[in-house]
Design brief:
Layout: E1 6-12, H1 18-29, E2 34-36, E3 45-52, H2 59-62, E4 67-75, E5 78-79, E6 88-89, H3 109-117, E7 121-125, E8 134-135, E9 138-139, H4 140-145, E10 155-164, E11 173-174, E12 180-188, H5 194-204, E13 209-219, E14 222-223, H6 230-238, E15 258-260, H7 263-270, E16 275-276, E17 287-291, E18 297-304, E19 309-315
Parallel strand pairs: 3-13, 15-17
Antiparallel strand pairs: 1-3, 2-3, 4-12, 4-13, 5-6, 7-10, 8-9, 10-12, 11-12, 13-14, 16-19, 17-18, 18-19
Helix pairs in contact: 1-6
Amino acid sequence: MLAMDGLLVIDKPAGVTSHDVVASTRRILKERRIGHTGTLDPFATGVLLVLVGKATRLAQFLSGADKEYHAIIRLGYATDTGDRTGTPIAGPHGSADPTRPIKVARWSEEEIEVALASLRGWIDQVPPMYSAKKIAGKKLYELARRGEEVKREPVQVCIHELAAIRPDGELMKDNFDGTFDFHVRVVCSAGTYVRVLAEDFGNRLSVGAHLAELRRTRVGEFGVTNAVTLEQLKTSFGEEALGTILLRPSAALSRLPFLHLSGEDVRRARHGMEVKVGETTWSDGEQVKMCDDKGHLIAIGDFDATTKRLHPSVVLA
């Protein structure tokens, strides 16, 4: 039977949590050691990286990958959660009644571009109360559900790309109820809250706003076109074709340089012992995949430029 150690690129459906996806994957594969590398909100869809077996030890190398999203920002009113699942709220630019959104003007392309440009690059974001971030050991959304609000320090995130999408050739879709939908492509660093980005975009245009739709289209190098649904996973497992969709652990870290180990060095790496290497261009502290002669990932090593040795920091085998 195929050793179930590797990476699955799952297309998460709407209406379930990331933890639900992990639980379903455990049931399908009958494997306990399964985890994911980055939470998606229940209403959101798209790429969720799921690590299986020994590959769960690689989470730390994937959780910091850049993300790409296709989002729909609804302009007209804000919500307490920052997305469509929340309750409409009153505010400087919002309406407390979703059936009576505030009247908004049509914005020029120049005004929209100025608003987008102000949110590109390194920016400060205050984590929303309805988030899984912990403060003093408590998840913010648990406090928010109890009606509590605590001070949150801003966090720096990087918005690499923020650009309008014109799905039907129009920049802004009029919903004829006082709201407008704006499609946008976002490429950002890990830790970015697209909900907050939607609210900030609305603030730039002096209108309440929230996230109406969110689809994650890429995590690092793994895109949604290569993702599988839970039903497809179930079918592949039942047909003993899991090997066609389960990526080897080494493939999950293709961006890292690698070293093919000799038989003796494989033994040393498996026991967490350092391995001497020859001349290399690796920088001090650089992380390197340590593989056997068949390309199986044995460990991730940290390179010591002074001693020319790799010190295994995470051992899989």
